[in-house]
């Protein structure tokens, strides 16, 4: 078993990469996720090292601080709708991949990276169509693995209310993806290959800052994931670069 962090900086060094992943899943934007982490680091410094390290589970305490901050600051309403997402990606017929596109840099290997990035961006954008409180339940339970009892305690709400949110989140995401996404059903019309050029032209997807988490397998490998939670858990994680991690810790 790893040693428990003895200082706030050790705790942040251990936990910020996972919290960055959580923040990205919640807001769908790397810059926004980083801003939430910066605010969290400020809040931990204000709270004090002794108080945070004195928690029964400091890691869970950090997650709770971030989750409650995101729910409060993201508001009650989603930034986009399922209709607006359809308008971006599905307002045109599918288009063949064009290696002459500047985004692909005449590099066939870039197609592999960008198809994975489109898959990740699209699915996280689906979550962004949910109200933040509802979205939070899906991320905490189906992606982070917290039980409804643990998550409701973390947020300071009744478990029954949390379960209502979770049921609503699962249903809305499944209802949207089930008739559209090829990763759920191979007979569905929306494929990453057919939509990649549309997404690039709309600036919906951009090259990731690092390729280290991109799998070697095709973005469409394996069987379709009819379990929506499993589909999301199969996505490559976003990674917090070491230099950014050190900058965050240094400012604490």
What does this molecule look like?
There is one protein chain. The chain is an all-alpha fold. The protein has a single domain (8-250), classed as Butyryl-CoA Dehydrogenase, subunit A, domain 3. Helix content is 60%, strand content 0%. The chain contains 12 helices and no strands. α2 packs across α4, α7 packs across α9 (159-177) and α8 packs across α9 (159-177). The two termini are 27 Å apart.
Which key features would you list for this structure?
single chain, 12 helices, mainly alpha, globular, 252 residues, 60% helix, Butyryl-CoA Dehydrogenase, subunit A, domain 3
Structural class: mainly alpha
CATH fold naming? Butyryl-CoA Dehydrogenase, subunit A, domain 3
Count of distinct strands: 0
Proportion of residues in β-strands = under 5%
Concise summary:
Helix content is 60%, strand content 0%.
List the helices and strands and how they pair.
Elements: H1 8-27, H2 30-47, H3 49-53, H4 58-74, H5 82-89, H6 108-127, H7 132-143, H8 148-155, H9 159-177, H10 192-201, H11 228-233, H12 242-250
Helix pairs in contact: 1-2, 1-4, 1-12, 2-4, 6-10, 7-9, 8-9
